[in-house]
Amino acid sequence: MALNQASQLYSGSDRLGPWCSPTGSPAPLSCETGCGEGSWILVCRLLVPTQVSLLSMEEDIDTRKINNSFLRDHSYATEADIISTVEFNHTGELLATGDKGGRVVIFQREQESKNQVHRRGEYNVYSTFQSHEPEFDYLKSLEIEEKINKIRWLPQQNAAYFLLSTNDKTVKLWKVSERDKRPEGYNLKDEEGRLRDPATITTLRVPVLRPMDLMVEATPRRVFANAHTYHINSISVNSDYETYMSADDLRINLWNFEITNQSFNIVDIKPANMEELTEVITAAEFHPHHCNTFVYSSSKGTIRLCDMRASALCDRHTKFFEEPEDPSNRSFFSEIISSISDVKFSHSGRYIMTRDYLTVKVWDLNMENRPIETYQVHDYLRSKLCSLYENDCIFDKFECVWNGSDSVIMTGSYNNFFRMFDRNTKRDVTLEASRENSKPRAILKPRKVCVGGKRRKDEISVDSLDFSKKILHTAWHPSENIIAVAATNNLYIFQDKVN
Amino acid sequence: MEFKLEAHRIVSISLGKIYNSRVQRGGIKLHKNLLVSLVLRSARQVYLSDPCPGLYLAGPAGSPAAPPQQPGEPAAGPPAGWGEPPPPAACAAWPETEPQPERPADPAPPRVGAAEPAAPVTGAGDALRAGEVEEAEAAWRRVEGPREAAEGGAGVFAGAEGPRGARRHCGCPPGGEDRPGALGACPRVDCRCAPRPAEDEPPAPPAVGPRKRGAAGVGGGPAGGPAPGSSPLKKPRRNSEEQPGGAEEEEEMETGNVANLISIFGSSFSGLLRKSPGGGREEAEGEESGPEAAEPGQICCDKPVLRDINPWSTAIVAF
Fold first, then answer.
1. Domain map of chain B by residue range?
2. Region (Disordered) spans which residues (chain B) (predicted)?
3. What is the pTM assigned to this prediction?
4. What are the beta bridge partners of residue A285?
């Protein structure tokens, strides 16, 4: 089980765990921090889903070639292709992406084979389907975007894979299954499926299953609709695997996977008088082990931990995490930059990580008055908040992720930069997901932003950062050092070099 | 001084964002609009904290003293400080308001708009204007109410919405209607735009909610009732603070630009007023198309205010 695996990794003392080579003995290089210089290589860059899926299905071309070739290097990206969420499943074998066009593309890891050892770790398209369509709410004259806000996998319990995908209003449970056999030899139908004239049937035979080309099909098994008035921002599967929650700006609902026509409202922060609205819910997540515990973050920079055993409506928190504001940093935009855009439990369940506009913070569940660690992601933007407000960048919602052993955290920034912070060594690195560095197996060079004074070679000045290229969504393999980074319509897969 | 310019610019930008949010695909985003309104509030407070009233963009060095306090104020407590304009007339008065944020309403539930009335402006001097400004301030939050009730969160539109809201609140038709200002022509008996700044009106009965106004287009329609069922606390507050008339100029400037806002945005902000009585409006969460309905702010005293159009308004006009 993926969960057990993660617990093993998080032994606390042995941070070399995930860095071991396949033989199990720690490789010398792995003694360095995982985010040290030069240790990350590009595995593959996956292209716009439409192109990949069209090619793989209509033409008989090896999708691997497509993924690794850069012949289809489009410089433009349609809005619908912009990736809006990335998520590994619990084993890391599958990687799902959702985009603004409502599509879900699932990539599967290349199986290890003796012939092509170097191909291990690559991900290829496994399945593509349209999860959500644009809708129009006639009653409210509202268009409902088909953009996939979040995807969450369910742990695998049989041969099929299940995932939840959600747009602003509706959550859907999809079943992704393989079919590699088909029945042949029906009595009443011929091979093309046409009905046979019963009078012509003189003998009976038993249909047999014959192998066929592998087909991956996705079917919607449940649709959880009409439960949210505001825009859904998070979904989280409970550790009991029977329930999950969906959170919008003001409410959180608890669902049972089997029941689609009702949900329980467990948090409601809508004030009786909307004039009194001061904060909204920005993210929510269940505790990884305790099925009664969850947290939700707010636009005011606070996190509330709730215990569902306390009462049916968890409006009163069990714990309240808030760091007092630093008055010296006060500005017009202090409230905006303190709004938490993502909250994630560590795999151990002991810590939570929050991302606000300029920092990532790690909180210990046992200490509510301040975080135990604060990492500056791009503090050089603090003096540019007004411009970022004008171009709406200040509202960007960056996500953050833990690695499998909770020793390294990662989050995105602008100019296609993403940052990793090693919690143990306190070292950090800035890497770039760009086409220029996109040769397969190319080693990523750490980047640096020059904040003032002399700009060294290879440094980038703050003013030349491209704010239209932002890394909002990243994912880390649950047990290995493989990361997926979404840059607009491109999905980059990087791997730790030690292998 | 620079702060004032900066605040001015930020207010303009914020209003633009709020305006554009109407046409965003996917509906109005509550979170973003809430954040924008918070910025608007902060900027507005900085702008109004200028201790030298009348010298909007040519403030002497005296102004820097205020802004540093300003930004602190909103953070001071729950948004109870929302619509609470600092005492424009004097810096001295500023510190008083600072500890105040929670006073007016209960600190416990942050009262985004309920608490602060149009503090600085009251019956002094120009009674008419005072009344308006009170409307502005008081209705400011009221404006937020229906706005937030609007599905997708048109959000809390503090700041500039306030004064505009005030107009609507009193139910007088907007200036565009060619009504001679608040002085006359207020069709409703209990319209506050009549010069009765000192009166303590009970909130209009729910039946007279602004909902009716919702149906009309820009600059038209029957005046809705006053007090769209919002917190009755506002009334006592509104009248409880007396400020020197100097404050009015600040508020006028505010209202002046609001007047322009109304004409520019047309009916887009009318949804702000559509607050159903007894919170019924809030229940209509889906009706985020509020902006499209209802007439915009009914400006009581457009003319006298418009005379004071200043660069701020001009900036807003650009939108």
1. 1-48
2. 60-122, 141-300
3. 0.65
4. A295
